[in-house]
Every structure is written in structure tokens, then in C-alpha cells.
Design brief:
- The chain is α+β, with helices and mostly antiparallel strands.
- The chain has a single domain, classed as Beta Polymerase, domain 2 (2-Layer Sandwich).
- Helices cover 36% and strands 29% of the residues.
- A six-stranded mixed sheet has the order 3-4-5-2-1-6, with helices on both faces.
- The longest helix has 22 residues.
Amino acid sequence: MSARLKGRKRAVNSLLVDVERWAGEHDGVKAVALVGSYARGAECMASDLDLMILAENPEALADEDWFVQIRPDARFIRAANWGPVRERRFRLGSGLLVELNFATESWADVPLDGGTRRVLEDGHRILYDTGPLRVAASAVGIDR
């Protein structure tokens, strides 16, 4: 593993600790999961960091202010909507792309929607959970 990738992984781990702390301090946040290549342990320098955030009011959290507070070097890149999911993409000063995806707890309802199932089966790591992600992970036979 290159020194650059080791440095990137340290920066990612620091960010994950900060996001986990932030989630625990906000009652409306119900769960946060790392998904995608970082969750699978298959990241490379070109990989983005993907987080799935379940909340009572995802629209309020999709406002990027909270993320910029924990990462002041974050620059907003784009917003997109994918069905019930609200995506917000940022680039950090290091070049790391961070994709924040927001949805209500119903995103993890069993039986799972096909999109939810694909995201979880592709790799996930629960960072914070009041219950809905553990139930969803059990439904796909993966409990991480």
C-alpha cells in the first residue's frame, strides 16, 4: 500500500470518527453506515467515501452546514435525488470526494427495497445505529 493511500485511509478514519460523534449528538439521526468500496476494504486513491444517513428529517440534514462545520475544507460539488435518497457530494481539500446520502428510516424497512438490498450487499459498515440498519443487515444475511 502506498504512503498516499495510507494517509488517505487515516484521513477517512478520522472523518468517520467525527461523523459518528456528530450522529450520536443529534436525536434526529437514526443510523449512519459506511457503504461502497471503503466498507468492503477495496478502496483506492480514486475511491470516494460513501455514507448512508437515516434520519427523522433527512431534508434538514441535507443542508450542508453541519458537514462543513466538521470539515471546514469541504466544498459542495452537487446535489441529486435518487428516489427517497437525497445525495450531497463534497470535495475535501485533500481531494477526497465524500458522498452523503440521506433518507428516512423507511429506507431500511423489511422487506428491503431492491436498491437498499444492493447497497447493503455491496458492502456496508454500521457506524451508528438506533436499530434500523441492524434489522436491514440481518435481512440480507450480513451483520457488520
